[in-house]
Amino acid sequence: MPELPEVETTKTSLLPLLNQKVVDIQVRESRLRWPIPEDIHNLKGQKLLKLSRRSKYILAEFETHSMLWHLGMSGSFRICEPQDELRKHDHLIIQFEDQQLCYHDPRRFGCIIWLNEESQTKLIDTLGPEPLSESFNEEYLSNKLKNKNVGIKVAIMDNHIVVGVGNIYATESLFNLGIHPAQPASTLSTAQIQKLVIEIKRILKQAIDLGGSTLRDYSNAMGENGYFQQTLLAYGRAGEMCVNCETTLENLKLGQRASVFCPQCQPLKKVNTSQTQRGQSK
Fold it and tell me: Where is the FPG-type domain (predicted)?
């Protein structure tokens, strides 16, 4: 599934379409996670004015309408020439003045919908802060975790706490800090939370700089692959040796997601019920 770095990279690769006018729209398959709006043809004649990202949504602002785009599990955008041959799972083609934009989604879990009051309220307004923003800091995360007894990996992947920290980047952040993914979130010390905020930001920035992770078939709208997967130390390496201690990496399931960790470098610490760990400097 494309995560924040992949969506950010996709958004950036779509920027050449800015200020181009939509001249035609072809819907080849409307049945995505939510149906492509029947009135999407209202975009004809409008210029694409702005592209932004919120969580894993791309917000596309046209002259009189705005759209909310989500890649789902297997979606991708591709900028191509009008004469290029379409592929089997190209469900939407937006023809601009100079190029065309194809939305490709084999599993059809993505969405192409209007950004309006209903979708804003339902999908955007309940989201937590962006992980790369100043509002995502040690004080904020400490307050959010103090009553959370779920594993820390589940907590930082909760979009109501912070958006966009997907499985890859949560796994790598916790491995680098030696924190067990199932460690109850409320038991992390202040020092651990501070380091976790810093590490999440570092990992995500690095992933964006490297164009995201191409693990299966992800590429940006220009057809370019990401390279962050070449730096992975834990994610996808269950059964291999830890790069730090040569212990075999193990896999457990948390929140329906596989979580790779090193049992030696990331021990599950026992919770001392007689005292709170918050504020300790270990």
Answer: 233-267
